[in-house]
Amino acid sequence: xxxxxxxxxxxxxxxxxxxxxxxxxxxxxxxxxxxxxxxxxxxxxxxxxxxxxxxxxxxxxxxxxxxxxxxxxxxxxxxxxxxxxxxxxxxxxxxxxxxxxxxxxxxxxxxxxxxxxxxxxxxxxxxxxxxxxxxxxxxxxxxxxxxxxxxxxxxxxxxxxxxxxxxxxxxxxxxxxxxxxxxxxxxxxxxxxxxxxxxxxxxxxxxxxxxxxxxxxxxxxxxxxxxxxxxxxxxxxxxxxxxxxxxxxxxxxxxxxxxxxxxxxxxxxxxxxxxxxxxxxxxxxxxxxxxxxxxxxxxxxxxxxxxxxxxxxxxxxxxxxxxxxxxxxxxxxxxxxxxxxxxxxxxxxxxxxxxxxxxxxxxxxxxxxxxxxxxxxxxxxxxxxxxxxxxxxxxxxxxxxxxxxxxxxxxxxxxxxxxxxxxxxxxxxxxxxxxxxxxxxxxxxxxxxxxxxxxxxxxxxxxxxxxxxxxxxxxxxxxxxxxxxxxxxxxxxxxxxxxxxxxxxx
Length: 506
Ligand code: HEM
Description:
Bound molecules: protoporphyrin IX containing FE
Oligomer: single chain
Distance between the termini: 28 Å
Structural class: alpha+beta
Helix content: 40-55%
Strand order of the largest sheet: 1-2-8-5-3
């Protein structure tokens, strides 16, 4: 299947994690004040299992909120403390994306997600205005609700037959359809047809993750990229994604040029095509087609798997917590009265939003963020960081630390039940950072939350679901936290007193 979990064997390569096995003598110190991890063999076997963020958590409990992980040429300082994360995120002039840009340049090119310096400032300024309130409201009505409804329609047959459904796969398809329509006004139609693009995005992201742990960055040598099978596969995947995006840009460019329309108001939405691509082209800003392609590709990749994984883990958590599920169902029925959600309904779906935020706390995507110090710095607690130092901010550790959260390992959506106040990095003082923070914070945070609320509201409104028994729902990583074997659910149509508004006619 397109979003099948990565095989543990894909980790068995000569990477720096494997070399930890050989460097178990790394205790001792330097003048930075940062303790150095002395890895044990059992930790290394965890690493080979495929989820790097899990041993990072174990080491936080052993070594504290900051430690150094070093092997071969790689040397990371791992940060698991809100105040330290705040300093790193907020000081974008001191900390750049570093390794993150190096390992994912083959996908994003010069796109917003990894651009640095003035280019990044200019592209962020161009892209952010496209995600305005009127656009988000149009997306709720025209894209999020309709795609969610299509998902419900699609699973009806399995619900009637009693066949188990892999909801992780379905959510991945749903979010690709949503991001395609919202960014390009293009339907990948992946819910109903096989989409090679899902597979390609997954292959490309997996390659970026492997590159971040390779001991020898052999992929920097062009010639080797042409003969190593893993690189050939990755290049092919990126080519497919880029060609798809380029085609969409050309089509839209022709329409915009023919119509000759120009943005004449701040919150511009083209009725026929409210997509971000249309907004950016109609704003007639001087930008090359390659830059536009890379920016849009940044949005496509950053917005697809992340939101899909949030839906997967929230559904999983609800399936394990009958009382929270009942509360969500009651809320959805009371607020929507059988309708599809509108933009204004969403602020009333408070408890469902709390469940999604709590899911983002327990399963942050990606679980670890990477930065590189450009100049020397001192982190809170008097820890010295040299220029050039690679840093991992473990969002997973901060979100799971018992020093940061009460009942840290439990699903307690009520902790976010604060009248009118959505949790973010500022009002939690960087204890809750699912979208990062500082100047490089996610541009799609509101988009993603709205999409997740709509998708789950429609699903919970119309379907009952329960986990197929006997599944081991383990965690593994791509760019997000995946399940190891999918999320298989038994579904049935939910019958309530509300008469459903008929499905959209298409
Ligand atoms: C950046 C998470 C959805 C577009 C980020 C970052 C995080 C994140 C943590 C910061 C990375 C860093 O500091 O290194 C998420 C999560 C999402 C989500 C958890 C879903 C729940 C989206 C969506 C879009 C999007 C839907 C587009 C519509 C971006 C872009 C950046 C970014 C373009 C780079 C911003 C920059 O560097 O200036 N995201 N994201 N994300 N995200 Fe999201």
